[in-house]
Amino acid sequence: MLPLENLKVLDLTRVLAGPYATMILADMGADVLKIEMPKTGDDSRAFGPFVGEESAYFMSINRNKRSMTLNLKSDEGKKILRDLIKDADVVVENYRPGTMEKFGLGYDEIKKINDKVIYAACSGFGHTGPYAKKPAYDAIVQAMGGIMSITGQENGEPTRVGASIGDVIAGIFTATGILTALYNREKTGKGQKVDVAMLDCQVAVLENAIARYFISGENPEPIGNRHPSITPFESFATKDGQIMIAIGNDRLWAQFCNLTGREDLIEDERFATNGLRTKNHKEIKAIVSEILGRESTKYWIDLFDKENIPATEINKIDKVVTNPQVLARNMIVEVEHPSAGGIKMSGIPIKLSDTPGSIRTAAPILGQDTDEVLKGYGYSEGEIKELREKGVL
User: Fold this and answer.
1) Sign of the C-alpha dihedral, residues 126, 127, 131, 134?
2) pLDDT for position 158
3) Which residues pair with 197 in a beta bridge?
4) Cα dihedral across residues 152, 157, 162, 168: positive or negative
5) C-alpha closest to that of 210 among 225, 201, 222, 220
6) What is the pLDDT of residues 142-160, one digit of tens each?
7) Is the bond into 232 cis (omega within 30 degrees of 0)?
8) What are residue 119's DSSP bridge partners?
9) Cα–Cα distance for residue pair 149/106, rounded to 1 Å
10) pTM
11) Is 238 in contact with 245 (CB distance < 8 Å)?
């Protein structure tokens, strides 16, 4: 039995943040019915790269879901959605605030249809505040939320984080909010609204940058790959490449010095504590750079691994997807898609001992479950055909 089996989720989301949240629920067994616009579907179906006519982008975040086409601008489409809401445990959307109200299906209306439903809204800036109705994308919230200002090389220009973390982190928080609200419903019997803003989520993950600002009154700046308050904790050039090391305490520093033949550094008063090492970062970087530049990356990693000093080469994606630890944890999986064939994608990072999630089906073809869903609500083949001809489906 999957942990969220029999949980009915009505998924009105598109592109990334919302679909990522519902994918988490689907991986854990929820019955996620994705509602898409007829003919075009989720915007991300048009994003490359493609396998035949299918978007690999779309397939990577919409597995384990069913797809139904429904035109919510039509009265018939709204009626069908209302019927679906009656049976749903969760409704998830990531429209700009106000859009669902234009459909006549904002939370105030939805809770009249089903007062136990968990209504989750994931948007750029949330449903309150002066920016509520502003449009947002990942790059916008990364810039506005401050993470770009602390990312990049020292004295370099602000840099967007390579993955779409503005969307992905919001998706994770949305799934967390849904599960929290479901737990509360178990105790109270009441549904509620979950309002998650991408900007809020960016602020929430700034952790030590905000702490440093409030303590010092100074804006943190990009410092490349090093940690702002732990030293040495950054990347260094080796004889043939790059290595990342993380000397997180004084004990590890002593081990590092002994292993590299620089026992004298242990007694150096400039480096006696982490605070002093961080204060004297430039001096210690020059010393460690000289040490690590003597040998190959593999030499150092093999040596550090024996003494449990955290270190790694900086992997490109080809090495990530073949990493033995990644493979041992089933973090690269292959799913058979009905038209695209075998598709490889990332696995499920949450490992439950008794009721683990699973990847059971590939992402659906647009509208592949429409007829089955409607027949379950008593629609005949003739009625379904008529709705399709009218552009409702």
Assistant:
1) positive
2) 94
3) 123
4) positive
5) 220
6) 999 999 999 999 999 999 9
7) yes
8) 91, 193
9) 36
10) 0.94
11) no
Q: CB of 174 within 8 A of CB of 120?
A: yes
> Residues with catalytic annotation?
167
Is the CB of residue 22 less than 8 Å from the CB of residue 38? no
E-strand ranges in 5-147 read 8-11, 31-36, 50-51, 54-55, 65-69, 90-93, 118-123
The burial of 263, by beta-carbon neighbours within 10 Å (0-12 exposed, 13-18 middle, 19 or more buried), is given as exposed
Average pLDDT (270-278) is 95
- In the prediction, which pLDDT does 391 show? 95
CA distances to 100, 253, 258, 275 from 265, rounded to whole Å, are 63, 9, 9, 15
Quote the CA–CA distance of 173 and 187 in Å, as a whole number: 21
One DSSP character per residue, 216-270 reads: H-S-----TTS-SSSSSEEEEE-SSSEEEEE--SHHHHHHHHHHTT-GGGGG-GG
Selection from 192, 191, 183, 219 nearest residue 4 by Cα: 183
Report the C-alpha gap between 178 and 13 in whole angstroms: 14
Query: What tokens appear for 244 in the block?
Result: 């990342």
